[in-house]
Design goal:
Blueprint: H1 3-24, H2 28-48, H3 52-76, H4 81-85, H5 88-113, E1 125-127, E2 133-135, H6 138-146, H7 151-172, H8 184-188, H9 192-195, H10 218-222
Helix pairs in contact: 1-2, 2-3
Amino acid sequence: MDVKTAFFYLFSLVMLFAAFRVITARNPVHAVLFLMLTFSQAAGVWLLLKAEFLAIVLVLVYLGAVMVLFLFVVMMLDIHIDSLRQGFWRHFPLALGIGAVISLEMAVVLFGGFRAGEAPLIPETVTNAAGEVVQYSNTKVLGQLVYTEYLYPMEIAAVILLLAMVAAIALTLRQRKDYKRTDPAQQVRVHAWDRLEIIKMAPTQAPPPAAEPAAATAQELKQ
């Protein structure tokens, strides 16, 4: 066993363990942390397959942005774990059946649709359109394929993701009732008599009696 194979098994075992802990961890924060570990190990597998661009994107996008956002959202939300666990065993047979069907389909695809073969050889240098010999770049080749042959699928996927983001915002947008909200249009149309009204009211208490003059001292009387 060479070093590359050893690293592949190491990354794969850690990734499988972390993925299993994602669905078995009771604390949602721990589940998010295990999911971040899963993505980091998947990035290591991509590096072993010489797909450096995909590994960097996986680390920057998922670990650096998406998973950190998930972590902050999970920590800020008031999630009641006990209420989430209610009805678990009642729906467990259905979940087990769906999981078995998915596992069977994946087994059929993996063992029947793919054949193990030799890995394609990646050249160290290639010849560009100008006839110059340049170093082979996996990222450059991927970019050329994405923006030439797969341009329309990429645009369609971008539009679908945009629609999904807008739909998620529209579905979760609710007006909060725990704070006061002002309407700028009403503030512009307001008048002075709408804001202040002077009302004459009868006094509710009698005025205090006038203060009596202080008694003169004996010295003042003698004078």
